[in-house]
Structure formats: structure tokens, C-alpha cells
Amino acid sequence: MYINKVTVPNPNANSKISTVLVPNFLPHDTIFVPQGAEYQAVCRGLRGVTGSIPAVLPIPVGMKPLLQYLQQSPESRRFLTTKSRILIVGLCGSLSSSYGVGDLVLYQDCVYQGKRQECDRSFTAQLYSALATPDSPLNLVKGLTSDRVIWSAAEKRRLGETLAVDVVDMEGFTALEFFNAAAVPVAMLRVVSDNCQHDIPDLTGAIDSDGSLRPLALAMAMIRQPVAATRLIRGSLIGLKVLEQVTNQLFSS
Question: What's the pTM?
């Protein structure tokens, strides 16, 4: 079931134009969003939306906690046995000067340690059609998934240049690898919350083994690097607001 048909640039071929269908999300589709502030922003964006909306599930932060969740969660069995589509949304960090805080990015693929997983091309093209406008560009990017927080601006730029990637997250590759193996369509939509020109606090010790944040360790990391902490908070607030707005836009259309 779809809303309408439109002609847009094909995100998988820069020089081509293709006609695609704008998605109408169904009840058996699912939104994955990292637990905490990102999950809360998506829920705020869905307030007041009428009609059918997918289930929204908070997922743990980090590759290992997410894989454990996917392998053990009862919901995962449902995803694998129904014709469900998975939309992953959340925040990410920029690895390129082309993308700044508040920019909306739509993944084409994601890499980790030399391996690459593609997002579903049809689903991605449908999202592009629904969200890209002349006044609100939607950036098509290549993502990197990291098993640790990339806090140094110098390391961000180095990774972006050497791996030819645009943004970094901590869940994307794991989800794509898991669901692609079962032929479950996945698309990934994120908002940049920190750029590659400035450091953010080193939050490595602030993420617990289950993917949840450790409040005391988080507070200590912020206190040790107050300027970087202020910048991270400001960028996160901007990113979360855009995430809330784009969620509302996508499901109100």
C-alpha cells in the first residue's frame, strides 16, 4: 500500500532519474531507535499523528549489545517471519566537513572492519522521495559503524578520508548484517549531532556492557572536558529536535 508516485533522482545512480513510490508505513513495519533521548525524540514526533504508524522499539547502544538483543529478543523472531520492514533512526557523528550538526542523512550502506552491508535500495529510494525537497535536502551517505565512541576530531577526519565514509554510528552495520541475512528490508535515517571539526568528550567508559548509559561515568566525562561537553550537548539538542521533526513529517504525510 502506497501514498503516491513521484519522479526523483535515483540515490543509487547520480546521473539517473527514476520513478519510485512513497512508502505508506504499515503496522507490521518497525522503527528501531537507540534507547534514551533519541527514542524519546521519536516518540514526541509521533504524538498527534493519526492513522497507522509502526511499532517503535528502543534498542541498546553499541554493536555487541544490539547483536545480543537481536538474537535473544522475541520481537526478532516476528521480524524474521513476517514481511516487516525495519527503519533505523537516530543520531550520528560526521566524518566529513560536508556534513554539519542538524543535517539529515540517509544511508546507502555501512562498513565495519573492511566488510560492507547495503541498505535496501527500494525502501531507501522511497524514503528519499518522501523527505527530499529543494528547501530541505536529504544527504545520501556512506556510513561507518564503530565498536567504540569516536571522540577525536582528528580521528574522525582520518577515518572519513581513508575509508571513504561520511558519518559514524554504533549500531548500523550490526543491524544490517543481521537483517540482510534474513532478507528483511532495512533503511537507515539519521541526524548529525557532532561535526568533525571539534572533539567531543570521550564517552567510552560511559556506555555499559548492556548498551545503556552509566550516568555517573557520563557526568564525569562531561566535567573533565567542559568545552567539548557543552558542544556535544548543544549539537545533541539540535539533532534531537530535527529527529523529532522529521519523524513527524514522515508519518504525517
Answer: 0.86
